[in-house]
Amino acid sequence: MVQALVENIPAQALNWILARADGMPLYIEEMARMSPLPSAAAIPATLHDLLAARLEGTGDAKRVAQLAATVGREFSIELLRRISPLPFEALTTTLQELQNSRLIVSHDANTCQFKHALICEAAYQSQPKAQRQATHREIARVLQTQFAEVIEARPEVVAQHLALAGETHQAIDYWLEAGKRAEKHAANQAAMDHFRAALQLIQKQPVDRERDRQEFLLQVKLGNLLHATEGYGSTDATQAFFRALALCGNLDDSPEVFQALWGLWIGTLDHSFPAALELANRLNGLAHAMDIDFLRIQAQFVMGNNAFWLGDFAGSQRSLELALALYRPELHGPLVAQFGEDAAISSGSFLSWVLWLQGFPDQARRLSEKTLALARQLGHPHSLGLALACAAILRRWTRETPVVLSLAETVLAFAQQHGFALWQATGTLVRGWGMTMQGEAEGVVYIEQSTQAMRTAMGSAAVIFLAPLAEAQMHLGQNEAALLAVNKAFHEVEKKGDRHFEAELYRLKGECLLAATQEQTLEAEAAFQQALTISRRQGAKALELRAAMSMARLRRQQGRADEARHLLAGVYAGFTEGFDTPDLQEADDLLCCLA
Known about the structure:
This protein is mainly alpha-helical.
């Protein structure tokens, strides 16, 4: 490479270059281009030394290179002109000298770039610290006063210069604004980076009420984004909300305490639903004490959500319906950023699940569609992801396989676009279930992948993932594996207190036992009876119907057809809608066979 760049290079100099280069092409290239070629003893020992020497050789252009490097590796000539003391003609000539020296290259009439990041770094570091800070301060001033379009589109650029200038307070404001802008444009990773940059600077600020209020806002915003991207099981999000709650010791406003507790409630859901209920009750008490509608909406969703997981579907319905009754899109929609998701979309999604469980599949599907329409109208990415994922799970429960597969692709594409881990896992789950129901055995692999991803995204939702895994494995005749999945789900029921699908787990257990061997008929019958008992206690007609069908088939095999028909007919008679769904059609067919 050196010989291609410089003819007749002395062997000693060549050997020195190769020995010092350590295989680094930029070092080799820059050394070879030095003219006149130095003696071996004069060769700079490191790349940084070499680049510094090259800059020293540029004369007056060194200061221009320093100014440009302070702007950044790529820099605007117009911005450089406004911070440089040189007249425009002299600046243009100097920039041409830097191009001729192969230190910078021109992209267009207004933009240049240092040829290599290390050249830019060498120019930047060649300035005394005080000089660098002064230049950053001037750049920030010029941007603030003369480049309104940069302030609007890229506030993080100003934040960076202010931070490096030592203007910490202003820098925090701009980092916060940059984070908000990135969040608004669904650039979640960039938003989190900006909020973290602000939080790093805040640690340098003296402790006072304003500092605590600003850190509180940043911690809540960061926590909300972490829940959206990493899932409700994010430990970093929990830490952010714990810190936010600690800051409330210096803040008197109860709405802020509510926000911090909300974030901690979500984190607690990942560990134990009964434990989360304690926080839910506290949030509900705060909301009623403050008598703020928006907080009451959030609190009712919290109560309805918690009741759902605990299997109290009537209580869940009451709370979720109250949340929706209080919600006004024009008033409460714009406040979504405070809690990271829209309360009406969350409430509508969970209420659609409750309605299906209670035996109202038509109402459930209509509410799901209405909630999806609201989510699309609001345009908040995490809320829309939640609505799509919940709609896909609902259609899995109603066993509408083509709809499930269509929604699965939508959920997956959306989750991948925005980096939403929990919705990615949900999309993978429903895709795998749908494939398996169509006879594609590889669908089980997708479900297994989703159960692994779920552990970090929201470990407490294990039953949502393990139940369809068992169902899919049974569909493929993998009965031992299915029973293992059911037993894992039961472990999660006891560990986390998730009771919403407990009745279905007992039914699946019974089916697994019957499929394995007829010698376990009594155990299977006991499991079906337990499914019936739990579903009736919870008011879960949809699960009661499934349990009744399983028990009726067993009774028919035992020669007790009349008893089977009486059991199933009584449950079937309790339905007033949803007769086009696979479950009710299957029940109707079974009743005809038993007649």
